[in-house]
Amino acid sequence: MKKLVVAALAALALVIVIGACKKDSGALVTPATPQGQAAPAPAAPHPSAAADIPAGAGHKGKVLEALVAGEYVYIQIDEGGKKVWVATMQAKVAKGDEIEFADSEPFTNYQSKILNRSFDSVIFAAGIRNNGKK
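Above: the chain's sequence. Below: its structure in token form.
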């Protein structure tokens, strides 16, 4: 329970930081990389982020899409037939990976300035656990 509260507070702090950023860096790396070119290496995830997520707690699903936006990555997963978006600090994921993250209240009608798009619903997570391809 304590870890869940800490994860929720960390997610809230992440949301506050995102909301406080007034300058749009304009930096955008698209998930699709032209054939023959290597995708840029993402920043290292927070070292304790995955360790704070108890296995089997919260959300779990297969990565359908990942959009890198500055220091964050927006990941769409298939969670038992339901498509869910999660945003977190940079994390290394690939289509088909199975990930887990702690549950928190989703933001509805969220607008990403860097991606220049809206999300009907997105969960901000302090970190994810990547279980690889299953």
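Residues 2-32+49-133 form a domain with the OB fold (Dihydrolipoamide Acetyltransferase, E2P) fold (CATH 2.40.50).
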